[in-house]
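Exam revision sheet. Question 4 asks you to relate a sequence to its structure. Input first:
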Amino acid sequence: MKQIKPVPFKHRPKGLTILYEDMDVIVVDKSSGLLTVKANYEREKTAHHILTDYIRRGDVKSRKQLFVVHRLDRETSGVLVFAKSFEAMENLKQQWPTVDKKYLAIVHGIMADKSGTISSYLFENEEYEVYSVRDTARGKLAVTRYRVIKETNKFSLVEIDLLTGKKNQIRVHLLEKGHPIVNDEKYGNGARRGGRLALHSQYLTFNHPYSGKRMTFEAEVPEIFRNYFSK
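Answer key, structure tokens:
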């Protein structure tokens, strides 16, 4: 795993913090509000576009590519990894079911069960809304393990092990549990407090695609999470 030399300031990516980089992978702390990949309404202000420009060092003729391994929702912050080769991407995707993915979420209310596992089959309709269905042939299995680590009389701070990685999985499971994530415009209860979605990818642990070394990366917990439980 050969480390990359420091990059001149003018080529450093904006809106992202690089946690680790070598010849095979680049791991970043994505800010809330930034897309992972392009969408119909946004093509350039994405983590993938910003980091592709970064690895090309501003050289428009460069053929260097960055490969998507997984995604974080636009309003979700935290650890995000990209591969620098097709082979590295394939390796990471193959091991993804065994990758440790830990999140933090602030949810509305006090959870009766302080820990547990939520399992359901998720389906996405034509309006891009995700929800659980009984038909196992129609939906995709999603499994979320959670543990309450702090609470007030209105909110709970929940640590989440994402055992599968389906679209909007955590947000949908917590909503259907009766405890939607704070400031979730799509899957919330309408009781917005202002500010960003309270969901953060805190840890990611995987085997390096070249060396096989087990590596863990951590993204600093945003201030919003501390503010809710500081008193």
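Marking note for examiners. The longest strand covers residues 140-151.
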